[in-house]
Amino acid sequence: MHFTDLTITALSLLAAQASARTIRIAVGRDGLAFSPSSVTAEEGDVLEYHFYKQHSVAMGDFSSGCTPALQGGFFSGVMKTSGNGPNKNVFRVTVNSTEPMAMYCTVASHCQKGMVGVVNPTSTDSLDRYKTAARAAQANEAPDGMFGGEMVEGNDNTDGGSRTSPYRPTGIASGDRATITGAASQMQASLGVVGAVAVGFAALLI
Predict the structure, then answer these.
(1) 103 touches 119 (CB < 8 A)
(2) 8 Å CB contact between 26 and 172
(3) Are residues 101 and 93 in contact, defined by beta-carbon separation less than 8 angstroms?
(4) Residues contacting residue 7 through CB under 8 Å, at least 6 positions apart
(5) Model pLDDT for residues 118-155, shown as the tens digit of each residue
(6) Residue 56 in contact with residue 73, Cβ under 8 Å?
(7) Which of 53, 76, 101, 165 has its CA 20 to 30 A from that of 115?
């Protein structure tokens, strides 16, 4: 019984990981804008921010434009990028709720000028509503430092945008990406590990 429960739980976790997406968002590629500025994400999906010029991304508060979220949230810190291409580093945030999230750039008055976005918008917490709140903001506030995500080195030359791909784990300490490519390959390799662990547990139960 315990062996069966363990196997089912492990397989469920692996299936959820394999179906998670990486949602790429370009920060400042198209001027004072997030591209795309509105996205839909499920729990376990990863928001991957690609930076241009000098910008940042922070989770905001729908009721108060250009201010950090009151609870939780994330902040990339200000990313300075030379030239016209993307920064070599990307900021990755794992989505842990399907509730609406506002995001904004903390640099200068970029937020008030419309550099905002929304994840999982609704009729009440919409992009238009947050843009209105941002325009009325008296100041553009930023958290003290980076938190709520991981800064890693990008593994290719893509420039962000609305494309999505299966989630692949990243090394938090080193920033190196896993060498396994593709969700199917990842699942196959992980199943082998789960099988070995399950057999070990079965032996203990005999």
Answers:
(1) yes
(2) no
(3) no
(4) 194, 198
(5) 999 999 999 999 999 999 999 999 999 999 999 999 87
(6) no
(7) 165
Cross-strand bridge partners of residue 58? 75, 104
Q: How far apart are CA 199 and CA 176, in angstroms?
A: 31
Say if residues 126 and 108 touch (Cβ distance below 8 Å): no
Please give the structure tokens belonging to residue 27.
Answer: 């920060």
At 202 the pLDDT is 44
Q: Which residues pair with 89 in a beta bridge?
A: 153
**32: DSSP letter:** S
CA distance 148 to 53: 22
**Closest by CA position to 34, among listed 53, 51, 54:** 51
Contact indicator for 47, 25 with CB cutoff of 8 Å: yes
What is the per-residue DSSP string for 50-118? Answer: EE-SEE--EEEETTEEEEE-SSS--B--PEE--SSS--SEEEEEE----S-EEEE--STTTTTTT-EEE
CA 97 to chain centre: 12
Name the token pair of 71: 């609870």
CA-to-CA dists, residue 115 to 33, 85, 122, 131, 174, angstroms: 5, 19, 19, 8, 31
